[in-house]
Amino acid sequence: MTVYIDPPTWPGHGRMWSHLVSDVSYEELHAFAAAIGCPPRAFERDHYDVPSSRYADAVAAGAVEIGSKELVRRLTAAGLRRPKHRPSA
């Protein structure tokens, strides 16, 4: 199981956010997110939004830290990228 997280550099709602993704399956991603306490509402198309206050928890649970561009590259290469203009499966 490999789940990836980028640095919390995305602003929103008065906080900074990271993206949590899997390059294997959404099932793997959902299981990992549930295990670290991410609520289902934090899932957006192909990733979970993780507040900076929970970043260390995700890493401690096994999420691999990578840059944002690499995160998108891996997600796209795995065929799991769901851009806003493309409907979800």
Question: Layout of SSEs?
Answer:
Blueprint: E1 3-5, E2 10-12, E3 15-22, H1 26-35, E4 43-44, E5 47-51, H2 52-60, E6 64-65, H3 68-77
Parallel strand pairs: 1-6
Antiparallel strand pairs: 1-3, 2-3, 3-5, 4-5
Span between termini: 22 Å
Write the element-wise H/E pattern from the N-terminal end onward. Answer: EEEHEEHEH
Strand content: 25-35%
Which segments are poorly predicted (pLDDT under 50) over 5 or more consecutive residues? none
The SS-based structural class is alpha+beta
- The portion of residues assigned to helices is 25-40%
Q: What is the gyration radius calculated from CA atoms?
A: 12 Å
- Calculate the mean pLDDT score and round it: 92
Structural commentary:
About 35% of the residues lie in helices and about 25% in strands. It has about 90 residues and is of the alpha+beta class. The two termini are about 20 Å apart. A hairpin with a 2-residue loop joins strand 4 and strand 5. The mean pLDDT is about 90. Strands 1, 2, 3, 4, 5 and 6 form a 6-stranded mixed beta sheet that branches.
Task: Please give a quick description of this structure.
The chain is of the alpha+beta class and 89 residues long.
Task: Supply the key terms.
single chain; 89 residues; alpha+beta; six-stranded mixed sheet; 3 helices; globular
